[in-house]
Amino acid sequence: MTSSTRAWRRDGAVPTADLETIRAGVVTFGRQQTQGSDAADIAIALYDGDELIAGGFGRTEFQRLYVSYLWVKDEHRGQGVGGDCLRQLEAQALRRGCVDALIETLLDDAAEIYEHLGYACISHVHDFVPGFTRHTLLKVWQPRD
Questions:
Q1: How many C-beta neighbours within 10 Å does residue 93 have?
Q2: pLDDT at position 3, please?
Q3: Is residue 110 within 8 Å of 78, Cβ to Cβ?
Q4: Using CA atoms, how far apart are residues 120 and 16, in angstroms rounded to an integer?
Q5: CB–CB of 137/119 below 8 Å?
Q6: Is 121 exposed, middle or buried (0-12, 13-18, 19+ CB in 10 A)?
Q7: Burial class (CB in 10 A: 0-12, 13-18, 19+), 111
Q8: Would 65 be classed as within a structural domain?
Q9: How many angstroms separate the Cα of 137 from the Cα of each of 62, 104, 122, 123?
Q10: Could you tell me the residue range of the domain that residue 62 belongs to?
Q11: 1 has a pLDDT exceeding 80
Q12: What is the pLDDT of residues 26-72, one digit of tens each?
């Protein structure tokens, strides 16, 4: 007869490696359900010499670009650098055969910029974070069947 040593751990008592195991397990299970995942990281970075001034990354999967992060250093904002980064990610995604792109933001101004760049807002979650709306935007290059 074996004795049980089960015990719940919470918050900081759960090792970071175990959090990654949980995340990977959910992703793996989901991808097994959909079959045929072709997930691949995608990234772009702009440097001035050795200084990183802008960049973005996400993944491509199932013919879609998922933009996770898009960032521009404060002093370079408002100069079109963010739009250039997004266009660079899109160009890579198109070369990979993507037919659309998905991006999210909590900033109304960023959502407007994305709309100006051809994205359409497909959902809003008001007060996602107090005082902020979560915008989900989609850009379609080629309609899906």
A1: 25
A2: 66
A3: no
A4: 37
A5: yes
A6: middle
A7: buried
A8: yes
A9: 17, 6, 5, 7
A10: 37-140
A11: no
A12: 888 888 888 778 999 999 999 999 999 999 999 999 999 999 999 99
Assess contact for 34 and 62: CB atoms under 8 A.
Answer: yes
Q: Is residue 5 part of a domain?
A: no
pLDDT, residue 30, reads 82
Residue 49 CA, distance from chain mean position: 27
The answer to whether residue 6 is domain-embedded is: no
- Extract the tokens encoding 111: 């959502």
Q: What CATH number should be reported for the domain holding residue 106?
A: 3.40.630.30
- Confidence (pLDDT) at 126: 95
Query: What is the number of alpha carbons within 13 Å of residue 34 lying toward its C-beta?
Result: 12
Residue 87 phi, psi (nearest 5): -65, -35
What is the C-alpha separation between 49 and 12, in angstroms, rounded?
39
* Any domain includes 28: no
* Total of domains in the chain: 1
Question: Token pair 């404060």 is at which residue?
Answer: 74
Helix, strand or coil for residue 30? helix
